[in-house]
Hints:
- The protein is an alpha+beta fold.
- Helices cover about 45% and strands about 10% of the residues.
- It is built from 26 helices and 22 strands.
- Helix 1 (about 5-35) runs antiparallel to helix 5 (about 110-135).
- About 50% of the residues are buried.
- Pfam families: Phage_holin_4_2, Phosphodiest.
- This is Phage holin family protein.
Amino acid sequence: MQMPRWKTVGGTLLRVAAVWAVSTLTMLALAGILPDFRLKSGDGDTATQIAVTAASGAGAFGVLSALVWPLLVRALLLMPALVLGLLVFVLNGSMLLIALSVNPDGRGAAEPETAVVVAAVMSAASSATSTFLTVRDDDAYRRRLARLAVRRRRRLGEDGGSDEPPGTVFLQLDGVGHAVLREALRERENRPPVMPTVAGWLQSTHKVTPWRTDWSSQTGASQLGILHGSNEDVPAFRWYEKKSGEVMVSNRPTSAAVLQRRAAARAGHDGLLTVDGASRGNLFTGGADQLALVLSVAARRGKHNRSRSGYFAYFADPANATRTAVSFLAEVVREICQSTRAKLRRETPRVKRGGLYPFIRAFATVVERDVVVTAVMGDILSGRTAIYADLVAYDEVAHHSGPRSRDARQVLARLDRSIELIAKVAEHAPRDYRIVLLSDHGQSPGETFAGAYGLTLEDLVRAGCGLPVSRRAGRTPSGAEAREAGRAALHRPEKPGVDGDGWCGGREASAGAGGAGSAGGAGDTAVSDPIVLASGNLGLISFPDVPGRMSREQIDARHPALLRTLADHPGVGFVLVRSEAHGAVVLGADGAEHRLDTGEVFGASPLTVFGPGAESAVRRTAHFRNTPDIMVNSAYDPARGTVHAFEGQIGSHGGLGGEQGHPFLLWPAELTPPVAAGEELVGAERVHQVLRRWLEEADGPQVPEKEATAAPVEVAAAEVPAAPAAPEASAAQAPAAAEVPAEPRPAKASDAARTMQDSRWDGAPAAPFTVVSRVVPNKTR
């Protein structure tokens, strides 16, 4: 039964009056507490005059918040998100000063720093009151949902969304491995699970299974494969491309745009979310039109860049802005306290967590989480068909605190509450929703390579090349061994020690050992220094002055001691190179060698300790076009499950070894299983096929295939021959550059299913898959 209009208007007015009254009382209380904030004139006022001043100030502040704040946020959208979050307090305080200045009697004044505090407290109080009244008023909440449903029906047509199939929400818990999830869902010592909401799902409505990543176990490769169906030629989180002379970094907007364009060209479609989809907080769009905090379009400017629209939708409400800003500062304080406690307790392993890191962590765990969760709830209430969102909080904290640390468990608990909130909102959506949880990789613990051995991977590479290294690295056992190995390989006399500059091998043998030069080019000599990059426990070494991929024979001729120095180091698990005679070759300690293309093994295979699937994963990456001259995977201790990150991380991912390669997939039981019984789900591209099948099972959106053309693809030099071609485009237009004429996008998901019926792949549950074959420079997502 519809409520009379007078009751609707009356209820709204009562809520406004209640919020106004609470704001007035809050202002009065603060005026009595804070010495630099007053609500009376110098001559003194009666209690009535002070109350009127407070009421007028609170009313003016509320009007400014409602009318001016959204305009301010929209004007500041081009600013970095971190700066925008910090400006929340200043803007709020400025509006309070304006509200006090418009008082006709001239009463009320505050110092600028006091105004910031007063505005923050008033916004929080009014937000809490408004939220409480709305929650208690079920009719108001239902009316809001009804309005959203009416808008949806108007957009879709007369039948609206009443007969639409269920929508699907994919929530990616970045970096949460299958084993960590299982532990978070179990009761421990009579304590409830860390994630009670997800634990309840697993006991009733959902199922969970692990899946295995590719060799590059990081968000760039995994999410690209999941959303766009291809992660071909993505060897790591960052790598050097000799053709362009640039370092590609997965979380750099320009690089992400190029990777998305290449993946779309290979897969032949724009992505998983092409039809009525929304992409929130991801590296890539997935083909969605609705975007918020999507990195691959962040470099765009103008009306076509909607990646920052999520900020406006969230921060347009000053109460949201204040609440998030307060939580942001609380998280900064929490991180400082936790890192101080770890230092005082001398916990090991441990990495430095100072500088800007507390603010970076707060952005990932508070600002990005709040904006993404709010955007997802808006998508659900709008009835979108497919939504994919990435929550990065756990991954950020686990890198610096450890995958099983107390800090990381607290983040998991907060993520569980976010999942619960999304599920409750889905109960009021204009269509049914299925929620799928998944992760893109796990994390493996362990002391850093530098912490364990006293030198970085770059130090080790330079020592093996006969290039100078720091005094500190040269004096370590690893540095000394590499130095002597280099001298022996170069037939040079032994020196009694390291000179003042820390030379290892000397520059005078530049023709054989590699001369001086910049890391990005040949410098003033014919031979340049190697470029050494890290992606978790995966290292990549390239020689930029040599066109194309160097062979093992070329490397040995140029740097005779390098490969053995790397392969024999106790912190290195194996080394991948290309041989002119034998193809892809994996080198291990004590002369072990595994020739991947021929299957020949000499000695014990270095890949055995990394478990089943390691050989096929390495073989696949070995034939990528942008695979570097040398790839190094750190050592793995299967008894402890530890690896050595080549970055400053005690929880890492990026290569092979341990839980980093075993994320999870948790799905509603009514969907068909990801793979047949006894099968293993391997590779991000296979996960894409599973998610695509689940969308199709609900008669939901299909992924329109692109029509192949004769135009060459920009990256087609060594790619899959059957990949559909697309015209070349600039990086700024990357997501759309690979498009070719395709079927018009259907207005409804059910129509899309009928239109694309011929292009479906067999989604029968018993059909097995055939497996072929943040803001921070050091952060690996």
